[in-house]
Amino acid sequence: MDKVHTDLAKMLAAGLFEPFIRYIRFPRFRGLRDGTRIEFMHPVTVLVGPNGTNKTAILRALQGSPENANLGQYWFSTNLDPIRTADRHRFIYGYLAKSVGEVVEVVKSRITREGDPDYWEPARPILQDGMQRMPPSKPGDPMPPERTATRWKAIAKSVVYLDFRSELSAYDKYFFHVPSRRKSAVLGAKKALIRKRSSHVARSLLTRRKSHTFYQSERIVQPAVTLDSELTAAISEILGREYDSIQILMHSYFDVQGATVIMRSLDLRYSEAFAGSGEFAVVMLVKSIAAAPPSSLILLDEPEVSLHPGAQQKLMAFISDQAKRRKLQVVISTHSPQIIRGLPACAIKVFQRGETDGKVDLVAQESEQSEAFFRLGVDSKEKWTVYVEDVLAAAIVRKAARKLGQAANSRLEVRVLPGGAGSIKAQFLPNFALTERKRCLLLLDGDQRPATAPGSPSAVPDVDLEKAVFELLQCKVTLPLDGSSGTSVPGQKESQLRQVLSWCDSNLDFMPGSTPEALLMDMEGLAQAADPKSEWLERTRQALGREDWEIVTSSDVLSEQERALAPVPDDCDQLQWVRDRVHKFLQEDQ
Predict the structure, then answer these.
(1) Are residues 415 and 559 both part of a single domain?
(2) Which residues form the ATPase AAA-type core domain (predicted)?
């Protein structure tokens, strides 16, 4: 274990992190198996698992733990996603009440109250959930500060929640995500507005004014600040680039609330409009953690987004150091092996879906890194592994490969990579390529197939390598480049890009059809539906005799798809193509 984590463990044992959420348990909550309990045994905890394993839901429950926090702001019932009142979703957590010297429990339940059907509030102890009755209070005795007459009070703890999939600058929010107004139907009008109003942004940055009314609206959300030298150095270390100064202004000059960041590096000065998304995300993370009060609860949802593996490791070093220095409790949701690398087993919580009912299980309260790597699908060393995007694609590959015989299948594994196609292409693929993972075949869905077939990697000139990789993958890949001041070691970037192209030439291919759902319907000989996913949902609903208002789970849909897949002839063209591709993969000299 790294020294910082050894120190963190000792500090936690000495009671230096109080108030500290010791555990959280879920008698009934979303897709988690009833009764799931998560122990927080280390100041830094990481939640690991494929998409759909309720990691974000757990973070939101933790965010809703303090007294005046309401989970209903983030999870609420709609006609599309109804929450049944009869299910009585709730969660319970424990913390040390110092006045009585023992861990007490707080329950928060979803209730319906006037004007809000999705309100979450603390409640009296629920005995059927294993909670203890409140100890009687003697007349005249002072009430412990952690309780009322009927329940224990919610924990008094500041919370910082950052979702890095949606951490966008003011410029990005307005230019790329706000629908054009009727009179501003083209991007040119948005450019004109940004040009016109950026003078006010610049003025607010220069003067650090605390207030500015523009078009009858207050535009300063938080006055401009310049990060101190320590935080600037931390950002420089994480990103591998030397920054002289970093300014941040929270404003709404572009008619959306967001941040503008001005970065100075050597003789360069630029805003978040020209910075990478990883730069902006790291700046906001460092600022938010630094601004959080001591002993805060820090919740980070996929902080690895847009960061290459080296930056991810340095980010974790910063987070762990801040946890130690400022006694922060940190909980992180991640798909990245780099985020969990170096953590003790008690800090790693691995989740998986049950094979029969689709409920989410916690594998163990302590998991070694190897277990987490296995669940992430990146640690196969002995077998030849076919990686796919989802469970239906995996079922199709397994059916196709079954006819290759027992010997071939004994050497073969089929795994689902978490995070979706974008995450797979941007992060997992370059990691496979640059670590020379030869015993794996990445089979993406057919809708990820490039418009034109790439040429020979050896024939691509150095100046065209980045373009060739982008045309093949339709995204920028994260590369572990060395160097500082915005530059990498000469030739390193080109070498890594060529290595990615060469790996893709041998180890990347695309399934027939557009999506697994559409492919299965094609193999059945059915006409293609406009929305295959919705079609499978409706078929499952009918097969189970469910009403429109009843919930149909992803596990129900998969079961129906597997029933439809079973009678598909093994010699159909689509299965034969998959079988031939897997056979070719197994026959390659590894």
Answers:
(1) yes
(2) 288-340
Residues 86 and 187 in one domain: no
Task: Name the CA dihedral angle for 3, 427, 286, 205, rounded to a multiple of 10 degrees.
Answer: 160
pLDDT tens-place string over residues 275-319: 566 788 899 899 999 999 999 999 999 888 778 888 899 999 999
pLDDT of residue 590: 43
Number of domains in the chain: 3
Give me the pLDDT at residue 82, please: 63
pLDDT of residue 200: 94
Integer angstrom CA distances of residue 80 from 76, 236, 283, 445, 551: 11, 45, 36, 26, 10
DSSP H or E segment with residue 47: strand 44-48
Same domain, residue pair 175 and 273? yes
Could you tell me if residue 197 is inside a domain? yes
Q: Nearest CA to 117 among 80, 146, 82, 168? A: 82
Please measure the distance between the N-terminal and C-terminal CA atoms of the chain and give it in whole angstroms. 34
329 lies in which domain range? 3-158+293-371
| Cα 223 to Cα 250: distance, rounded to the nearest angstrom | 7
What's the rounded Cα separation, in Å, for the pair 479 and 307? 9
Tokens linked to 29 = 């909550």
pLDDT at 565 over 60: yes
pLDDT value of residue 281: 86
Region 535-556: what's the mean pLDDT?
91
* Predicted TM-score of the model (pTM): 0.66
Instruction: Check residue 80 and give its pLDDT.
Output: 56
- 188-201 per-position pLDDT tens digit: 788 888 889 999 99
Residues 359 and 430 in one domain: no
Tell me what the pLDDT averaged over the chain comes to. Answer: 86
What is the domain-level CATH number for residue 138? Answer: 3.40.50.300
Task: Give the whole-angstrom CA distance, residue 171 versus residue 251.
Answer: 11
Cα-based distances in Å from 27 to 32, 84, 351, 512? 9, 15, 17, 43
Q: What letters, b where the CB count within 10 A reaches 16 and e where it falls short, cover 528-544? A: eeeebeebbbebbbeee
Beta bridge partners, 510, equal 444
**Residue length of the chain:** 590
Question: Which alpha helices (H) appear in 144-186, and where do they start and end?
Answer: 170-172
Q: Among residues 323, 345, 371, which one ends one of the domains? A: 371
Integer CA distances (angstroms), 453 to 75, 115, 369, 469, 504, in order? 43, 56, 38, 12, 12
Strand partners, 540: none
